[in-house]
Structure prediction request, 248 residues.
Amino acid sequence: MRHPLAVEDVSAQSDLWTIRPAPAPKPHYTGHRDRLRDRAATGGLAALPDYEVLELLLFRAIPRGDLKPLAKQLLARFGSLGAVLGATPEDLRTVTGVGEALALDLKLMHEVTLRAAREKVVRRPVISSWNALLAYVKTALAHEAREQFRVLFLDKKNQLIADEVMNRGTVDHAPVYPREVVRRALELSASAVILVHNHPSGDPTPSPADIDMTRQVAEAGRTLRIAVHDHLVVGRDGVASFKALGLL
Prediction:
């Protein structure tokens, strides 16, 4: 007579011969995020190439997946890390894989960089912190896709009162009205101004129209004792100073 447990024993034994599928291979990028963070922590962020710095930023908005291709695609699309951060949210979202949250994170980083640069300029004479001023306007405008005209309003001590966008234009023109610049200077009790605009082409060389407009602003301000200290033209290739070029 067979023991009642015998059937169960045979069933249990047959399980030993069941063929189970091999575990799926892990994605090639498994552990990459941790390795990249470790490299950043031990070797410093400065040692990382631009695409890996951008990857670290992308990790914040996209919790999983291989982001190296997206980082490289962004750099290829906009040309540089600074240009990626300076791009508009609309342009960023034209890149496959970039959603609203990621575009906001990238613009947040640009805003943090801009405010940090501005801190080195405010509450101190602009003339004595000229290199900081150049760094600030380049951060603000070097990668703008459209021409933008800004005015830095200064008090009697040449300290920054306000930095205001007076007009936004097309890829090669932003109309400027000298009377509006002078009127705003009077409203702010400014004693001097520094004109700033960008050339989206990348070349900061002043155009004949730039030179003519600067002379008009200087003449309008002279009668009201509002000085034009300089006009800075910002491009990806650098910053041109009217004063240094002998144009003012």
